[in-house]
Amino acid sequence: MFIKLLLAGILMIISSKNLISQNNMTAFINGKIYTVNKNQPMAQAVLIRENKIIFVGSSDEVKRMITGDTRIIDLKGRLMLPGFIDDHVHFISGGFYLLGLNLRPAKTTAEFKSILKKYIEKNKGKWITGGNWDHEAWEVKDLPTKEMIDDFTTNTPVFIDRFDGHMALANSYALKLAGITKNTPNPDGGTIVKDKLTGEPTGILKDNAMALIYRIIPDNTGEENYQAALAALNEAKKFGVTSAQDITYKSNLIVYQKLEKENKLTCRIYTRLPIASYKSLADAGIQYNFGDDKIKLGSLKAFADGSLGSSTAWFFDRYNQDTTTYGLPMDIVSDGSLEKWATDADKNLLQISTHAIGDRANAYMLDLYEKIENTNPKWDRRFRIEHAQHLRKTDIDRFAKLGVIASAQPYHCIDDGVWAEKRIGRERIKDAYPFKSLIDAGAVLCFGSDWTVAPINPLLGIYAAVTRRTLDDKNPGGWIPEQKISVEDAIRCYTINNAYAAFEENIKGSIEPGKLADLVVLDNDILTIDPVKIKDAKVCITVFDGDIIFQSD
Predict the structure, then answer these.
(1) Distance CA 91, CA 321 (A)
(2) Where are the beta strands (DSSP E) in 373-497?
(3) Rounded to whole angstroms, what are the CA distances from 309 to 133, 252, 312, 421?
(4) What are the residue boundaries of the structural domains of the chain, listed by start?
(5) What is the three-class DSSP state of 56?
(6) In this structure, what DSSP letter does residue 25 have?
(7) Nearest to 278 by CA among 185, 183, 343
(8) H helices within 1-158, ranges in order?
């Protein structure tokens, strides 16, 4: 019923869009425009009418086309690019992060406790969630425990995430409410970390074990989701993000529809619902690329394993840091559900994108995708692997051969690169984030942020892909430098390649006539400056659907 109502709502929106006046044109002149269009890579000027690009060329050509009421923006030599597309984002969660608890700045255990304590003092008795802590940034790299926070959280339930979203810390009160004790077994695809001497839960829950507590936390209200979405939209426009491929839930869809009806949706949303819900989409007749140019349905998200930081990414060989584990395949991998669901969803023309970080998880997904392709009728399925982080050399060529899209998040490279080697060792780490190898093999490589795991700013992602300088500045020449890519390739990964990954390369992702007028202007020419300075570049103007939605001072 929900999906049918959603279907009706989107159809209504398609037929009742508020378009800009037919005579309203805007000309951007005197710029350096990198179009990402191979047939016309560079230009000086762009002319748009309503929400579409109608001409790309020289400033003199555009000047001859303008009328008396044309709005003229002099770029004064600044660089214009297509609007950035983020290929992997937790959009509304990002809004909650902006509005709520932020533990990411903590660089010591003392700072971690201090920030949390101050936040709880203002929110006593409420569920405390989010946070995005990172123990690898602290002076002691050990995982936190409930004992660290119990003394100031006695009557307040706490369940705060590590920034990768694959483990979280619960206080004793939250464990009690969830009924988790030393006798509680690990669920499939999850781990309840327990003290080696006493057997008592330490408070750390990994992957599927986190659901034991999430299921008792009250859902956010519609108004809370709405305010979080507004905060996320405001953040996205500041960084030139005009499209986001979102890990979406039903409650988010309702918010996005409301925002579009109110003409407040300033970022195109390509939704990916949990794969377990595929049947409701299929039963409603929804297939890939369904919707309008603001909200799309028809793509699904699954998980094959966990994360490297939580030691739950699934590898062929054991972890160096913890030789008791290979990581964790998700329960839907172990029990066969993922293969069944993905095969059936693909028959119903729904796109599959699957989180896979460890080399074994990636190999498993390539095998599964190949099996589905050989079993089901042919169609332009565009399978995706989200992260594609650790790949055996023999599997890199398979991405291109099978047409599987590698959906990577380059900022993780310079973040994880600070500590990743100790997890799996020097030799295996050489196969981490193989961006150049994927491009050289002919695979479609896409980039995003994984916000809130990393900043939403695409310029930081481009900087990371081009320099691979880790955040601790210990790799000035780049971490695994042979995998550095060009600025042009990194821009393509944030624009036209991402549009392709969402079946939208014909309507956006490059600056050419007929495409949507989503554009970004930068204060510095990232194509020519020292790549180290790309991280300091800023967005001057963001154009969405033909309107300037952000302009810096």
Answers:
(1) 33
(2) 384-387, 405-408, 445-447
(3) 12, 28, 8, 11
(4) 93-214
(5) strand
(6) E
(7) 343
(8) 2-15, 59-63, 91-99, 109-122
User: Containing H/E element for 279?
Assistant: helix 278-283
Residue that the structure tokens 């762009």 belong to:
46
pLDDT values of the chain reduced to their tens digit, one per residue, 553 residues:
545 545 555 444 444 333 334 468 999 999 999 999 999 999 999 999 999 999 999 999 999 999 989 999 999 999 999 999 999 999 999 999 999 999 999 999 999 999 999 999 999 889 999 999 999 999 988 999 999 999 999 999 999 999 888 999 999 999 999 999 999 999 999 999 999 999 999 999 999 999 999 999 999 999 999 999 999 999 999 999 999 999 998 889 999 999 999 999 999 999 999 999 999 999 999 999 999 999 999 999 999 999 999 999 999 999 999 999 999 999 999 999 999 999 999 999 999 999 999 999 999 999 999 999 999 999 999 999 999 999 999 999 999 999 999 999 999 999 999 999 999 999 999 999 999 999 999 999 999 999 999 999 999 999 999 999 999 999 999 999 999 999 999 999 999 999 999 999 999 999 999 999 999 999 999 999 999 999 999 999 999 999 999 999 7
- Strands 45-49 and 25-29 turn out to be antiparallel
> Do 396 and 436 form a contact (C-beta atoms < 8 A)?
no
Residues 369 and 349: their CA atoms lie apart, in Å, by 14
Q: Characterize the bridge pairing of strands 405-408 and 268-274.
A: unpaired
β-bridge mates for residue 29, sequence order = 74
Looking from the CA of 431 toward its CB, the CA atoms found within 13 Å total 18
Give the chain's largest Cα–Cα span.
80
Element spanning 491, H or E: helix 487-493
User: What is the pTM (predicted TM-score) of this model?
Assistant: 0.90
Phi, psi for residue 169 in degrees, rounded to 5: -105, 125
494 Cβ contact list (under 8 Å, min separation 6): 84, 85, 86, 87, 447, 448, 458, 461, 462
Residue 53's CB is within 10 A of a number of other CB atoms, namely 23
d(CA 191, CA 329): 12
Residue-level length of the chain: 553
Helix (H, G, I), strand (E, B) or coil at 80: strand
Orientation angle between helical segments 250-261 and 2-15, nearest 10 degrees: 20
Task: Tell me which amino acid residue 298 is.
Answer: G
Token pair belonging to 509: 């992702």
| Residue 521 tokens, joined | 């202007």
Q: Quote the radius of gyration of the chain (alpha carbons, Å).
A: 23
Q: Which DSSP symbol is given to 102?
A: B
Q: Report whether CATH 3.40.50.300 matches the domain 93-214.
A: no
DSSP letters, 275-320, are: GGGHHHHHHTT--TTEE-SSEEEEEEEEESB--TTTT-S--SS--S
Helix (H), strand (E) at residue 213 = helix 211-214
